[in-house]
Amino acid sequence: MRKDSRLSRVLHVLIHLDSYSHPVTSETLANMLMTNPVVVRRTMALLRQAGYVSAIKGHNGGWLLATPLTDITLFNIHQALGEKNLFVIGLTDEHSHCPIEHAVNSALQNAMDDAEALLLKRFAEVSLAELASQFKK
After folding, report:
1. 103-112: per-residue pLDDT in tens?
2. What are the respective helix, strand and coil percentages of the chain, to the nearest 5?
3. What single DSSP character describes residue 131?
4. What Gene3D superfamilies does the annotation carry (predicted)?
5. Which of 19, 37, 125, 127 qualifies as a cystine partner to 30, CB 3.0-4.6 A?
6. Which residues form the domain of 56?
């Protein structure tokens, strides 16, 4: 199963942007992430809409951090990316008339909901400045 690494990759980019004193191009960020600049632009556009980055067009343009890392949490970025589910475990619905399937799905869904609530609570407690301080040590 393929992992969704978009959140970790975006956090990586934002912490790098904090260390630059000038705009950083999508091409530079794409090289850093080993992806296509179009992917970077699409993702950064979501962050711009949320107010975490800004863009300068033209020669010497690029992306800038618009909000201090101290004011951005993992939860903020998770929301800005429009992530719906943290877990990709699927529930079956092939036998929707079966009471066993209902019981299994209910138990799994309740456990995943509890785990997701706990994880999102923790995401809200961790600022990007905390992450940045770990690598600066």
Report:
1. 988 898 899 8
2. 60, 10, 35
3. H
4. Winged helix-like DNA-binding domain superfamily/Winged helix DNA-binding domain
5. 37
6. 6-85+127-136
